[in-house]
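Handout, section 4.2: multi-component inputs.
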Amino acid sequence: MSSAVQLFFDAASLGGIYAMAALGIALIFGVMNLVNFAHGEYIAFCVFALIVPSTEAVAVMFLGKAPAILLIPILLAIGGAAAVASEYVVFRHMRKATPVAMMISSFALGFIIQNALLAVYGGRPKAISLWPDLNTPIALAGAQLPLLQLIVILTTLVVVCALALLLKKTRLGLEMRAAAENFTMARLLGVRANVVITGAFALSGALAAAVALIMATQTGVADVRMGGQIMLVAFIATVIGGLGSLPGAVAAGFLIGAASILLQGFLPLEVRPFRDAFLYTLVIICLLARPQGLFVPSSAKPRI
Amino acid sequence: MKHSILASTLMLTLATPALADDITVGFAIAKSGWMEAYDSPAATAAKIRIDEINAGGGLLGQKVKWVEVDTKTDRAQSAKAGLQVLDEGADMMVVSCDYDFGAPAALAAESAGKNSFFLCAEDVKAGIQGVGPNSFSGSVLAAVQGATMAEWSQAAREAKTGYVLLDTTIEYNKGICTGFDWMFPKAGGEIIGRDTFKNNDASIASQISRIKALPQEPDVIMLCSYIPGAAAAVRQLRAAGITSLILNGSAVDGSYWLDAVPDLSGFVLPVQGSIYGDDPRAEVESFNQAYEATTGARPASQYAYPGYILIDLWAKAVERAGSVEGAAVTAELEKMQGEATAFGPRSFSDMLHHQNSAKMQIIEIADAKPGVVGDWTISEPVPLDVLLK
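Output:
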C-alpha cells in the first residue's frame, strides 16, 4: 500500500514538471502552429537568471537572494519577457513562413540562447541554493516525500486550473481559443492577432520560468544543457496529447511521467539503463494506435 | 651551377629550422563549448610545467614551445584540430579530457607516429586499447577510484553493506562502479542493491523510493556520476532523509557545487591531490600556488593536476630517449615503474598506458567543508580483464 502511494507521488511530481513544460509548448502551437524548440532554453535561461553572470566556478546568487514573494513574480515576468522578446525579434517576421521554417528558426534561437549562456556563465555547471528547506522530508499517507514534490503537484494543479479559467472566462482566453480553432477566421472576426500571440508567448515563458524554479529547487544546479531533456519529453507529450490540445498536453505530460516512474520501478536491473528506449517504444505504440494524438482538439478534425 | 647553388641554398633554408627548431607541444583541446571548463585548467597546468622545464634549461637543450587549436567541444573539429597542430609542427599532442572528444585528434597523432596524451581521460580506451600504442592518459583510471572507495570505506569506516547507484550517461561512471563492484565484495562487504539513473533526469524519486524500501539503510552508497547529475542526486538523497555515507569518483571534486546541497556531510571522494591547501605533500600546495599566480585563482578541482603530471612524465621520457620520436618515447614511458611525480608515483606498461593503482588522497565533506582525511592505495592493482569489462 505505502509503496503504491509512494509511486503515485513520484509519478505525479515528475509528471507535473513534464505537464507544465508541455503546456508551454502546446499554447504556442495552438495559436501559430509553431513547435517552439527554444522552450527548453527559456527554462535554462530562467535558472541562470537566479545567479550573477560570471564564468567563475563558484556561483553567487543574484535574483535567487530575493524573498520568494518577490522572486516568483519577477522570475515569471523574466520568463514571459524572454519569450515575448523572442517572438518580437524572430517569430513575428515569420508569420507567413511554413511551420517547418518556423521550427528550424526556433532550433536556431535555442542554439543562440544556449551559446549566449555558455559565453556569459561558462561551461561548468553551477550550484544554486534555492529554498533548501523545501527539501525536508515529510510523511504523507504512508509515503515519505520531500515537501517539494507535494508543492510541484499542487502547483501544477493550480497552474492548470488558472489557465483553464483564463481560457474560459477572459476575453484574451476566448480570443486564444478562437485563434487556436481557426486563426484566419478569428482575425476576420476581429481577434487581434498580435495580442493573442504575444499573450501566448508570455504565458508560455512564464510556464518555463515555473519549471525553472522547480528544477532549480529540486536539483540545486544550473547547467546550460539542462533544458534539452525536458524539452524533448514535453514535445513528445504535446504530440501524444494531440498537437494544439491544452488538456491533452497536460494529461500526456502526466502520462509520460507516470510511465517513466513505473518503468524505473518495475523493469529488471539489466534492462533498466534502457528505460528511455522502453518509454519511447510506448510513445511509438501510442502514435501507431492514435496518430492524431490521444486527446484531439475538435479543430484538428476535418470538417467535411 | 647557378641552379645547384640555388638548390642547396633552398635545401639549407628548408633544413635549418628543423635542426635548430624548438620542441613543440601541440594542444588540440576545447577552448570553447562546454568542455572548455574541463580542458582549460589541465592545459594551464601543462603549460606551467612547460615553463618550469624551459626555466630549467629546456628539453634536450632546446626550448619547449606550444601551439594550440580549438576543438570547440566537437568531435569533427577535434580531428581537424589534431591535423592542424601536426601541420604547425607538434612533436607530441595533448588532447581533450574526455575520450570521445580527444580521440579524433589523438588518432591523427597516432597515424603520424607521435605521442598523444589525454588531459584527464579515465577510461581504459584512452590509450593502447582505443587509440593505439603511442597514446597515454595523465589521469588515474575510473575503476581505481571506485576500488579505492570500496576498500577505504571498509577499512576506515567499517562499511559492511553497499548500494550502487550508477548514472549510465557516460563510460567514466561505469568505470567507477566496475571498480567498486570488483573490490567491495573482495574486501568483505556485501552489495545489497543497485539501480541506475541518467545525469539529466529531472527527478530520481523512484530510485530513492527503492533505497528507502530496503529493510536496512546501506552503510555506503556508491554514486557513480558527475556534476550536475551527481549534485542533483545527492540533494535528493539527503532531502529524502537517507543518511548513508555517499562515495564518489574524482569527478565531483571541487567545492564550487556545494551550495547545491546545503550542510552536506558524509560525502567522500578520492583525488590525486587536494586543492584545499591541506595536502600533506608540499609539492602539491606549491603547484596550487603556482597555478594561482598564473590564473589568479586556485584550481577549481583536481583535474588541473593530470596536465602537470603528463608533461612531467613525457619530458622525463624524452630526456631518457634522447629524442621526441613517438616509439622511442613510448618505450621509455613503458619502462616507468613507480616514477615519482609531485602527485605520487606513476607507472606505465606495454599493456596499459594508464594508472591501474595510485595513491589517492581521501577527501571528506563534513558540514559543507571539504578536507583531506587520509590517503589510500588499493591493495592490488585493478586487473586488465576488470578494466575491459
